[in-house]
Amino acid sequence: MSLYPHTFTPLEIHGNKLKNRIVMGSMHTGLEDYLSYKKLAAYFKTRAEGDVGLMITGGFSPNFRGRLTPIASQLSNFTQVSKHRTVTNAVHESGGKIILQILHAGRYAHHPFLVAPSAIKAPIVKYTPKELTTSQVEKTISHFVRCAKLAKKSGYDGVEIMGSEGYFINQFISKRTNHRTDRFGGSFEKRIHLPLEILRRTREELGDKFLIIYRISALDLVKEGSTAEEVLHLAKECEQAGASILNTGIGWHEARIPTIAAMVPRAAFQFITKELKNNVSVPTIAVNRFNNPDDIETCLRDGFSDLVSMARPFLADPNFVKKMKEHKKEEINTCIACNQACLDHIFELKRASCLVNPLACYETEYKIEKSHIEKKILIVGAGPAGLSCALTLAERGHKVHIIDKNSEIGGQFNLAKVVPSKSEFYETLRYYSVMLKKLNVKLSLETEYSQEMNQDYDEVVFATGVSPRIPKIQGIDHEKVVVYKDVLSGKVKVGEKVAIIGGGGIGLDTATYLLEHQLNFYDFWGIDKTVKSEGGLTEQTNVKSLRDITIFQRSAGKFGKGLGKTTVWAHRIALKKEGLKFINNVQYKLIDDEGLHFIKDGRDQKLNVDHIIICSGQTSYRPVSEGRFIGGAKNAQAIDAKRAIKEGFELGLEL
Ligand code: NAP
Ligand code: SF4
C-alpha cells in the first residue's frame, strides 16, 4: 500500500490521463534560449523517466516583443516545430506528458522593444515600455493563439498561459499597470478581457482535448493588486472560457516580499489555492516551497489543491517522484531553496543548474559511468566538496573511504544549518548520510589525516575546507573578539551588543542567527491571508531584534555583494526591519576594552560592544603542502557550497 495514496491517485482531464498528482512547474533553464534542443530534450527525458505526472516547459514568448531577454526563446513560426518535436518525442517515449508555457514578459522584458498595456516602467527593469494600441493588443492575442497552435503541432499535450507573476497578462489585469481607456482597460471586467479572450480563442482553435492551464495570479503582493473577490471572479470566468486547469501564481516579481526563498515556510501559499479550489470545478495546482513528499501528500489529502507543482526540486533530484513512489524518501536530494545555481544563473544569463546536483541541465555533458578499474580512494574532509566527490566516486564503482576530524559530516553545512532561514541544509546532510551508507562508502569520523595513510590508497583527495581569515587589526587578540564559527557552532555565547566585521554572506547569516526569535512569516512581511485588501497586502508587524547588532565593511558598496540577486534583497530588508545597523566605508583602527574603534567619514569613532565577531572571509586549510585539493582547500576565494559540490562531483567523474 502506498504511503502517499492521494499523490498517486491518477487524474483524468479532458481525456488526458495523468499518472500522479505531481507537476513539474515551469522553470527557465537557459537551454531554451540557445536553442539547445537536444540538451533540453535530455533534461526533460530524465525527469519524465523519474515518473513526473506532468511537466511544463520554461516560458516561450508568443512574439518578438514579448521575449524576456534579448536572447530569450520564442515560438512563433512553423520552422521551430521540428526542434520542439525533439523535446516532446523524448518525453512521450519515456511515458511523460509535457506542456509548453506561453509567457509574454510585457514591461518585464529586459530589452528596449518592450510593450505593455500602459507606458509605465517596472521598478526592476531599466526600459519604459511602449503602450500597445487596441489593434496591437488584438494582434498579440492572435499571437498567443498561434503559439498554442504551434505547440500542438510540436506534440505538446497542452499549453500553460502565464497570467501571473506580474507579466504581460497580469499587467492588463491590475490597475497598477493598466491605465487604458479602450475595451482592455478601465473596470475590472474590462481589464480581464485580455486573458479571457486568449483562453476562449485558444480553446476554440485547439479543441476539447488540448490541455490549457491558466496560471492565475492568486496573490499579487503589490499595491493596487487584485482582491480575493476579483481573483475568484476571474477564476470562474477562466473556467468558462476554456481553462482545463488553474495553476496558482504568487507575487509579482517587483513585490518586495519573498515567495520562494528559503526564508519562506514550506507550503506557505497553499491556503490561497484552497480558495480557488473551493470556487471552481476544474483541477487546481498548489505551488511554491514544496520540496518534500509529506507536504505534498498533506496538501492533497487536506483538500488544498488537486495537484502540486514543484520546479526547483526536480533540478535537485529528477527522481523525486520515483523515490517517493518506491518509499525511498530518505534518498531524495532535497532542494534547499537557495536559488544559487538556478534562478541566480538565469538572472546572469547563464545556464541553470543546481547547487546540490551539478548534473542538472548538463545531462548530455556529464556522464556518471562505471570505471574500468576499481581504485581505493581516500577523501580527507567530509564537507560539501568531500561528500560530493565520495558519492560520485562510489557510484562509479570505486572503493571510497572518507575521513573527518570532526564528530559529524557536513563541514561548513553544520554552521549554515543553524541559521533560521537555512534549516534546509539539514536535508542535504540527511541525503549525504543516507547515500554514503547506500553506496558503501566507509566513513571514519574524529579521525585525523596522517601521511602514513597514503600507502593504503591509489588516490588521496584533500577536501579539508577553510579556516576563518583573521584580519590584521590592532587588538585582534582581545577577549571580546570571536570568530563566526565559534558563534554558529554554539561554542561561544555573545552578549547583547555586537559588532560584526565583514558584511558578506557569513556576516549576514551570523546576524540572522543572532536575532534569536521566531517570526511569523505572514505578519513580518505583511501578507493578508484573507486577501480582502488589494494585492493581499497588510500592515507589516514591527519586530525589533533584542540584540544591538552593527555590521561593518571596509568597501563602499552594498552589504552581501557576492550573494545571489534573487534572495539578497530579502535578507537586507529583513535585517533592516529588525533594526540592524550597517556601516560601510570604514577603516578599522583598534579593538580594546571599550569596543571597536574605527574611522568613518574621516572621523574617529567608537562602538562599545560586548563582542566583535569576525566574518571577514576565509583561507584554505591544507594539512599537506602538495596534493589533490578540491573546494575551499583548493581556493578559498569566494568559496561556497555550489563550487565545493561541483568540484567534488567533477573530480569524482575524472578519477
Ligand atoms: P565574503 O562574502 O567574501 O565576505 C567577506 C567580508 O569580509 C566582506 O564583507 C569583506 O568586506 C570583509 N573582509 C574581507 N577581507 C577583510 C579583511 N582583511 N579585513 C576586514 N574585513 C575583510 O566571505 P564570507 O562571508 O566568508 O562568505 C564566503 C563565501 O560563501 C562567499 O562566496 C559567500 O558568497 C558564500 N556564502 C553564501 C551565502 C548565501 O546565502 N548564498 C551565505 C554565506 C556565505 P570588505 O573587504 O569591504 O571589508
Ligand atoms: Fe534548489 Fe538551490 Fe538547486 Fe536551485 S540551486 S534547485 S534552489 S537546491
Overview in brief:
The protein folds into three domains: 11-347, Aldolase class I (TIM Barrel, Alpha-Beta Barrel); 376-467 and 619-654, NAD(P)-binding Rossmann-like Domain (Rossmann fold, 3-Layer(aba) Sandwich), CATH 3.40.50.720; 470-616, FAD/NAD(P)-binding domain, CATH 3.50.50. It has 20 helices and 27 strands.
SSE topology:
Blueprint (H helix, E strand, L loop, with lengths): L10 E3 L2 E3 L3 E3 L12 H13 L4 E7 L20 H13 L4 E5 L12 E2 L13 E2 L2 H20 L4 E6 L4 H6 L14 H4 L1 H14 L4 E9 L8 H14 L3 E6 L19 H8 L6 E3 L6 H9 L5 E4 L1 H5 L3 H6 L17 H5 L28 E5 L3 H12 L3 E5 L9 H4 L8 H14 L3 E3 L14 E4 L3 E3 L12 E3 H5 L8 E5 L3 H11 L5 H5 L22 E5 L12 H13 L3 E3 L2 E7 L2 E6 L2 E5 L3 E4 L3 E3 L7 E2 L11 H14 L1
Parallel strand pairs: 3-4, 3-12, 4-5, 5-8, 6-7, 8-9, 9-10, 10-11, 11-12, 13-14, 13-16, 14-15, 16-27, 18-25, 19-20, 19-25, 20-21
Antiparallel strand pairs: 1-2, 17-26, 22-23, 23-24
Helix pairs in contact: 1-2, 3-6, 13-20
Bound molecules: NADP nicotinamide-adenine-dinucleotide phosphate (NAP) and iron/sulfur cluster.
The site of iron/sulfur cluster has 14 residues, from α10.
